[in-house]
Design brief:
By secondary structure, the protein is of the alpha/beta class. It is built from 8 helices and 9 strands. The strands form 2 sheets. The chain has a 6-stranded parallel β-sheet with strand order 1-2-3-4-5-6, with helices on one face. Strands 7-8-9 form a 3-stranded antiparallel β-sheet, with no helix packed on it. α4 runs parallel beside α5. The longest helix is centred in the C-terminal third of the chain and has 18 residues. The structure holds iron/sulfur cluster. Iron/sulfur cluster (SF4) binds next to α7.
Length: about 250
């Protein structure tokens, strides 16, 4: 079981988790904010979490501004002896409320920084995976080659992953957390939940005629081949009902 968490749990919950977890069947993906955005409370709780579950924890980082320096992730892995794996995710627009997210104009710069970071990780024996919503054409051929050599996991897709809230309601993914959440108990298993939310996302995407973030996506051969779905589909939900070329953004 892989649990996506920020690791900020109370000492009581940490002790309870330590008692009940089956180590070889559990992995944590712990999301860590960059140092400037961290609070003392966050630091202390995550430190306790890493010290308790070090070998079970990989790291996750959400990119929500273009100038982020990811070096602190390597420091964390070395300091706490964590799993040598890092998931990088793009912060997408959140449907229904404002949030910090990246503008597509910054994607090429973010791509450059990611590839630079992947090379550093490679030298430290750390592998990186890119989460959904990345766009294939914002990476150059050379950058894709560097990531391939460093065994970076990358799929240019956008598909429900299913988030479970503390109130045991579930939704497609964080950016769609306000869109038709359902009680977990309604589904027989995770596959049934994924099918439900995939149908929902596909329905809205089709209804709005959404074909990608850029005008070029409409006729892109990589989209036709299924190599890239055209970036995140949140825009299909945030559009004014017409997700046509009027609502897509110019490719930088
Ligand atoms: S589908 Fe769109 S985002 Fe993906 S490679 Fe083609 S033009 Fe770029």
């Amino acid at each position: 079981m892989k649990v996506f968490t920020n690791g900020c749990v109370s000492p009581e919950l940490l002790s309870a988790l330590k008692r009940i977890l089956v180590p070889n069947r559990t992995m944590f993906l712990v999301n860590v904010n960059q140092p400037a955005q961290r609070t003392d409370g966050e630091d202390g709780k995550q430190q306790a979490f890493f010290e308790t579950f070090s070998g079970l924890c990989g790291l996750s980082c959400n990119i929500y501004e273009p100038g982020m320096d990811f070096g602190f992730l390597i420091d964390h892995i070395e300091r706490y002896k964590l799993r040598r794996k890092i998931r990088m995710g793009l912060a997408h627009p959140l449907v229904g409320e404002p949030n910090s997210h990246l503008d597509t104009s910054s994607f090429p710069e973010v791509a450059r920084r990611i590839v630079e970071f992947v090379s550093r990780c490679d030298r430290h024996g750390i592998t990186v995976s890119l989460d959904c919503g990345f766009t294939l054409c914002d990476f150059t051929d050379e950058q894709l080659g560097i990531m391939t050599r460093a065994q970076t996991s990358m799929k240019f897709i956008c598909d429900p992953i299913i988030d479970i809230g503390p109130d045991l309601r579930i939704w497609a993914c964080l950016p769609l957390s306000n869109v038709a959440p359902r009680p977990l108990a309604e589904f027989s298993d995770m596959t049934a939940a994924i099918v439900h939310f995939r149908e929902l996302v596909n329905r809205v995407t089709d209804r709005h005629g959404f074909y990608g973030l850029y005008p070029e996506c409409r006729t892109c051969k990589y989209r036709q081949r299924g190599t890239c779905v055209g970036g995140y589909r949140t825009r299909a939900f945030t559009g004014d009902g017409q997700c046509s070329s009027a609502t897509v953004v110019k490719k930088p």
